[in-house]
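Below sits the subject:

***
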Amino acid sequence: MLKIRAIKLEVNTASGLFGAKYLFTNGLNIIRGDNSTGKSSLFQSILYGLGFEELLGGKNEKTMQSVLKDQVEFPDGKLHPVNQSFVFLEIENKEIVTVKRSITSDARKAQLVDVFSGSLLTGNKKERQADPCISTTKAVLQMTRTAFIFFFQNS
């Protein structure tokens, strides 16, 4: 059974680094908050990190909230254009891996997913060698065994 252990959103701007990190516990996790506090961004980022953004009705970064790909507003009224952004997702399915996927980056295509062996978000912070994969799209699944979905089948 797939378990989501943690998520980290990293948004780089010329003004500095913005983002959030959320650690999930065993059992049911309830995400609640006022309007515009990031609940939808969190849920969409989980699906995006897993390569399931087509469930949101689009492909790649087009499904993501503006705050993760266009501009960050902080404090109120002050806008910071996004240079690049990433979602990190630590998951467990027989083994623990950390997935890194670009939301916005000039140097990286959104379809590419890096899979790191081990827990980069909740455990050893040491950078590890990544296995590059391709997120799940029907065309890619027909062309290559490096599609991200095959990672889940083999773990």
